[in-house]
Amino acid sequence: MATLSPNQKTLHAVFSNSSPWPPRKVRSEPISRSKYLARSELYPAWSSVDDAKNRAVQLSDAAVKEFEKSSSKVQAKTGKIELYSMKYYAACTFGGLLACGLTHTAVTPLDLVKCRRQVDSKMYKGNFEAWGKIARAEGFRGIYTGWGPTFWGYSVQGAFKYGGYEFFKKFYSDLVGEQNAYKYKTLLYLSASASAEFIADVGLCPFEAVKVRMQTTIPPFAKGTLDGVSTITNKEGFGGLYKGLYPLWGRQIPYTMMKFASFETAVEMIYDALPGKKSDYGKAAQTAVSFTGGYIAGILCAIVSHPADVMVSKLNANRQPGEAFGAATSRIYKDIGPMGLWNGLPVRIVMIGTLTGLQWMIYDYFKIFMGLPTTGGAPPPEEAKA
Predict the structure, then answer these.
(1) DSSP code string of 45-114
(2) Which residue intervals correspond to the Solcar repeats (predicted)?
(3) Mean pLDDT across the stretch 313-333?
(4) In 124-224, where does DSSP find H-type helix?
């Protein structure tokens, strides 16, 4: 059946030329600008994204200027720091103190859940559930249980670890000679880091004992670091603070060996993959490389050291007074089995990866602040002339 209404083409043909207004002329020549007409290039369209980017760039530039200003003042007071001088080792020691003390304290909530799950794997199903239960039972401060001994212990450990690593790396390098040091550089990194960590753990152990007991007893057995030290020594003597030293060495020495050797290797590989040399890159780029290399190293050393980390937590929480180290270790292993040694590994990978990346970034940023070169990525030594 045919429709009686006109179609769209018919309507357009009839009414398209029926407008009462004359057709608009298209101007081919450019419009002459009046002196009262604003210049459009001075008033571009506003973009919130571009505005945010510009503000971020301005803040970044201001931060860089303040950093360089403060750095120049400090370097003027300390004077030029010669590599491998006493000032150099002192700067590296303080940089290590900042890097480890601040970062370990920042991740105390993760460490708290990890330690409690290592002692009792059924206590919490996940991190968020754990933090929720802790906050409801102990308040928000409960999430940071153990932050005091964590800060003091890892500040001491970081100082001896990073400062000692720089010292032993140079010491062993001088013993074997520059060419052999480069040829066997991985062995050099492993030896230097192991030597430094052996000493650093002696300073860490008392604080680690207090930290683990505070985090694994509900409510915490002590109100703070000094109270914890006093409580342990009154009940068990001074040796109570060091009953976890052997497993701490077992955890920390392989951890640190992996941490430093893999970091140095990762940084070298990153610079080899990038165009140009390390010296071609600015401060921000070099610290970004340090963070990336540190994160890679952190994942590897978390896996290597995790069984010993579980045993440290168990020994500090469950070792009986007067019980021998071997007997306690054997008893705990029978209770938890081989799979129990891997409790809390995913949490620890996230924690240690982030932790190690931030530590290397802070450490190298502090070295830049003091006018020193960043760690890793050094060129091979020049061939000795015949």
Answers:
(1) PP-HHHHHHHHHHHHHHHHHHHHHHHHHHHHHHH----TTSHHHHHHHHHHHHHHHHHHHHHTHHHHHHH
(2) 87-171, 184-269, 285-369
(3) 79
(4) 127-138, 147-176, 178-183, 185-216
Alpha-carbon distance 198 to 170, whole Å? 17
Query: Is the preceding omega at residue 109 within 30 degrees of 0, hence cis?
Result: no
| Residue 331 exposed, middle or buried by CB count within 10 Å (0-12, 13-18, 19+) | middle
Render 13-59 in DSSP notation, one character per residue: HHHTT--SSPPPPPP-SPPPPPTTSPPGGGSPPP-HHHHHHHHHHHH
Q: Which of 60-74, 131-145, 223-237, 348-362 has the lowest mean pLDDT?
A: 60-74
Q: Give the domains, in start order, of the chain with CATH numbers.
A: 80-369 (1.50.40.10)
- How far is 260 from 194, CA to CA, in rounded Å? 9
User: Judging by beta carbons within 10 Å of its beta carbon (0-12, 13-18, 19+), is residue 44 exposed, middle or buried?
Assistant: exposed
Convert the pLDDT of each residue in 3-12 to its tens digit.
555 566 665 5
Burial class (CB in 10 A: 0-12, 13-18, 19+), 308: buried
Counting beta carbons within 10 angstroms of the beta carbon of residue 52, is it exposed (0 to 12), middle (13 to 18) or buried (19 or more)?
A: exposed
**pTM value > 0.90:** no
DSSP character string of 255-309: HHHHHHHHHHHHHHHHHHHSSS-GGGS-HHHHHHHHHHHHHHHHHHHHHHHHHHH
Q: Which of 21-35, 174-188, 227-241, 312-326 has the lowest mean pLDDT?
A: 21-35
Residue identified by tokens 């050094």 is 378
Q: How far apart are the first and last CA of the chain?
A: 107
